[in-house]
Specification:
globular; single chain; 355 residues
């Protein structure tokens, strides 16, 4: 038996395994496989249009009636800053010249939409069991609508203070995201990545600070990590990088190859792809422009200027300008189908906990 069944019972899961929502790296296929296997599959909506999201929800419901998680960003949309945008394009100018690209032809504007009333309408129509948030929470009126509809609400915290803030606003579960996690930091009360706490120091402190179930995230890719998180008081774990190695993930062959070769020191926190700190595998743009660049515009505006370079490099079969998101445990993850991975994580962790 699992030490803490609160999250399993709250959501209606067989296994306390949450597939991390990974915008741009997956669609409904990964979520379907995980949910059908008894874990919680997740659909990241931050980079989808409402029409695309609706189609993905319809695909999920056509294949499984098990619980699923819809994930959204809650960042504040930054005001356009023409001078900063120009400085960022100037910083990337030598790379544009290398590929024969016109920096002024790069698209402008945000590529990620925060949760709003229109998204709330769609969620209430689609009816996912869980709705999760990154970078804080949406306005109280939207949360009230979700709660009144019976949604389980969870959100990421990178500090005890953030966890308490979330619980004070009524979340049902807290995702304790440690420094080891791949992808974007969920931080919202602080921007200090220098003090970002590791998962296995953060989880027990969050467990002690809040009364809701805690989901451990970051550096967990195989059964030993799952069992360790449970012993520290977590009621579930959220895993992303290991699921990127599954065939259901939509990452490029370049990204898969980088994950396959990744070791413990392969990743860093960088803001050069989006404007916010995110953990990924070191490549050329990270080395030469970052890892953290003061020139990068606010999230998500930095992404537009990098996108043409990514397309050009990938066409030449290079990942030099691609966001190769990965956590520090990438080297521990084994490639297998998402359903098999979900069951093996749970069964292996249970076997360890029974010793």
């Amino acid at each position: 038996m699992w030490p803490d069944r609160r999250y399993l019972d709250l959501v209606g899961l067989d296994h306390p395994i949450v597939q991390a929502p990974m915008a741009g790296a997956q669609g409904s296929a990964l979520a379907i496989a995980v949910s059908a296997a008894g874990g919680l599959g997740s659909l990241p909506c931050a980079m989808l249009t409402p029409q695309a999201a609706r189609a993905e929800f319809e695909a999920i419901r056509a294949w499984t009636n098990r619980p699923v998680n819809a994930n959204f960003f809650c960042h504040a949309t930054p005001a356009p800053d023409a001078a900063r945008a120009r400085a960022w394009r100037d910083r990337l100018g030598p790379y544009y010249a290398e590929f024969g690209l016109d920096p002024d032809a790069a698209p402008a504007g945000a590529a990620r939409t925060p949760f709003n009333a229109a998204w709330c309408d769609l969620v209430l129509e689609a009816g996912p069991r869980v709705v999760s948030f990154h970078f804080g929470l949406p306005e109280a009126a939207l949360l009230r609508r979700l709660r009144d509809a019976g949604s389980v609400i969870q959100a990421s915290a990178t500090t005890v203070a953030e966890a308490r803030w979330l619980v004070e606003r009524g979340v049902d579960a807290v995702i304790a995201q440690g420094a080891e996690a791949g992808g974007h930091r969920g931080m919202f009360l602080t921007r200090d990545i220098a003090g970002h706490v590791g998962t296995f120091a953060l989880v027990p402190q969050v467990v002690d600070a809040v009364e809701v179930p805690v989901i451990a995230a970051g550096g967990i890719a195989e059964p030993r990590g799952v069992a360790a998180a449970m012993l520290l008081g977590a009621a579930a774990v959220q895993i992303g990088t290991a699921y990127l190695k599954c065939p259901e993930a939509k990452i490029s062959a370049l990204h898969r190859a980088a994950l396959g070769a990744a070791e413990d020191d392969a990743t860093v926190l960088t803001n050069v792809f989006s404007g916010r700190p995110a953990r990924g595998i070191v490549n050329r743009i990270v080395r030469e422009v970052g890892p953290v660049s003061a020139a990068a515009p606010e999230f998500p505006l930095a992404a537009a200027a990098v996108a043409p370079l990514r397309r050009a490099a990938e066409a030449a079969r290079s990942g030099d300008f691609s966001p190769l998101w990965a956590g520090q445990a990438a080297g521990l993850a084994e490639a297998m189908g998402a359903a098999e991975l979900t069951r093996s994580l749970a069964e292996g962790a249970l076997a360890l906990l029974r010793r």
